[in-house]
Design a protein that fits this description.
single chain; alpha+beta; 5-stranded antiparallel sheet; globular; disordered N terminus; metal-binding; NO2/SO3_Rdtase_4Fe4S_sf; iron
């Protein structure tokens, strides 16, 4: 039986691409941006909302344009995860904000970290999160305090500008850029140049959706370029010249895709221009009609890298880029820079694990003091919710390791502590279905007790919803928050399980098994069972991800 073809005389609306003339009809987000540029909300916050308080904020600003200044309303306390998809935004939100301070390249001074810590202590109930995109997030922020917070951040060269919204988000860089001997090249300057020229620039303040960038010459690919919208990956061409390989179209959420190589070689002095051209392609050709298709990964999936390169060169650069080689595979599977690393100047970088990124402002202030006492006041954030203190002399390394350990900041953590990440979760996030931060901490602590001799790197990523802020699809064990029936038939917090995700050579997203789910109470038992099976059946030197790829299904349930 053949289904008859339907025809219509109505004009097709296309995908809402500006370059093809599709400006109408607008979805609510596009209408909001058309009514007022998101960057304009800054002055209204200073002049109006900080004086009127929460109840005086225009709804279009409150649930839309304030993101351009790094502000989201946070989840009201006590609303269970089962209500997330049922209640309206105004029913879920509290009269407080999450605020995100962007830290491009993860680069901080001790003075900057003291300011960051002080803001948390003074205005955010002493709560802070170091994110997996090198930022710091606050909670419990009142709109009345925002101008003073901005003043303090700007006094040390930081801001919340475009930390959220349909804009160029924080630009990721290797935390040890310019530090390690074996890097391909140092991307510090190209990140700084691009940020200076384009962050806060109206040219790119209305993109179809978020735009995530990484620029790095790290041999470990620590910025995870495989899953960024646009990445500049350090490479050496046939002539021995160091530059960048251009990757476009990575992203996770509900439709995960890996970035594709465009196949060009970008010299360091071309990076900012090429980044702006790529961003322009996204702005003009990105899909705006449906918000769930408004990421560059969907355009790349339809176009392919050849067409993207053609449009990039012909319409935006007006010049051809040379072909370029692929970069070498990541040198190490672990990309977090935890531990003691020798700097090229003979000093040491000391990287340490927090508690799934959660920390206090008071402790951030203490870390700033330690960076001055044992180093030269330079600190870095990583893409794995970790921190690094630079410039530590050999004779001070062990004293610093001990001083950090006094605050449960581990330079030599267990495999479980090192490899566990968690998103914000139900505690503060309006999209979340389950609590994540404390549960992830409880989980790694329990696994340390049950499997004290576990000797293989293992990534366990705990995510509160399908949006993958904690990258559950690329973890060895990824937990995606959902409501699950327990043994009594009651709906409780739980997770869908994804196993064997990994980046690098033969990158793959985690396997799902018939929608296999576990309750929150079962996660430690489940991890123990699967990991003991791995220890019993692994071959010499085998990684957990490789084991999962060959495992029989009943080994993993």
């Amino acid at each position: 039986m053949t289904t008859p073809t339907r025809t219509s005389n109505r004009p097709k609306r296309g995908e809402g691409q500006w370059a093809l003339g599709y400006r109408e009809p607008l979805n609510p987000n596009e209408r909001m941006k058309k009514d007022s540029d998101g960057l304009e909300v800054r002055q209204r916050i200073i002049d109006i909302y900080s004086k009127t308080g929460f109840d005086g904020i225009d709804p279009g600003d409150l649930r839309g344009r304030m993101r351009w200044m790094g502000l989201y309303t946070q989840r009201a306390q006590g609303i269970p995860g089962g209500k997330t998809a049922v209640l309206e935004p105004e029913e879920l939100e509290d009269k407080y904000f999450m605020m995100r301070a962007r830290i491009d390249g993860g680069q901080l001074t001790s003075d900057a970290l003291r300011v960051i810590g002080g803001i948390s202590t003074d205005f955010g109930r002493d709560v802070a999160d170091v994110t997996d995109r090198q930022n710091v997030q606050y909670h419990w922020i009142r709109i009345e305090d925002v101008p003073e917070i901005w003043r303090r951040l700007e006094s040390v060269g930081l801001s919340t500008m475009e930390a959220c919204g349909d804009v160029p988000r924080v630009m990721l860089g290797c935390p040890l850029a310019g530090i390690l001997e074996d890097e391909v090249l140092d991307a510090t300057d190209v990140i700084a140049e691009t940020v200076e020229k384009y962050v806060g620039n109206p040219e790119f303040s209305n993109l179809p959706r978020k735009w995530k960038t990484s620029m790095s010459g790290c041999v470990d690919h620590c910025t995870e370029p495989e899953i960024d919208d646009v990445s500049f990956v350090g490479v050496v061409n046939e002539a021995g010249e160091a530059g960048y390989d251009l990757w476009v179209g990575g992203g996770l959420s509900t439709n995960p895709m890996f970035a594709q190589r465009v196949g060009v070689f970008v010299r360091p002095d071309q990076v900012t221009e090429v980044w702006a051209a790529c961003t322009s392609v996204f702005r003009d050709y990105g899909y705006r009609r449906q918000r769930n298709r408004a990421r560059i990964k969907f355009l790349m999936a339809d176009w392919g890298p050849e067409k993207f390169r053609q449009v990039l060169q012909d319409e935006y650069l007006h010049a051809a880029l040379p072909d370029g080689p692929a970069p070498a595979p990541a040198k190490h599977d672990q990309r977090d820079h935890v531990g003691v690393s020798r700097q090229k100047d003979g000093l040491n970088a000391v990287g340490f694990a927090l508690r799934t990124g959660r920390i206090t402002g008071s402790l951030l202030t203490t870390i700033a003091k330690l960076a001055d006492e044992y180093g030269q006041g330079r600190i870095r954030t990583t893409t794995q919710q970790k921190l690094v203190i630079l410039d530590v002399p050999d004779e001070k390394v062990e004293a610093l390791v001990a001083a950090l350990a006094e605050h449960d900041l581990q330079v030599r953590p267990s495999a479980f502590r090192r490899g566990t990440m968690a998103c914000t979760g139900l505690e503060f996030c309006k999209l979340a279905i389950v609590e994540t931060k404390q549960h992830a901490q409880d989980l790694y602590a329990e696994l340390e007790k049950r499997l004290p001799d576990f000797d293989v790197p293992i990534g366990i990523n705990v995510n509160g919803c399908p949006n993958s802020c904690a990258r559950f699809q690329t973890a060895d064990i990824g937990f995606k928050g959902s409501m699950v029936k327990d043994d009594t038939g009651e709906m409780v917090e739980g997770f869908q399980v994804h196993l064997g995700g990994h980046l690098g050579v033969e990158a793959t997203f985690g396997r799902k098994f018939r929608g296999h789910k576990v309750t929150k109470a079962e996660t430690a038992d489940y991890c123990e069972r699967v990991l003991r099976g791995f220890l019993d059946r692994r071959t010499p030197g085998e990684s957990f991800a490789h084991y999962v790829s060959r495992a029989e299904e009943d080994w993993l349930l």
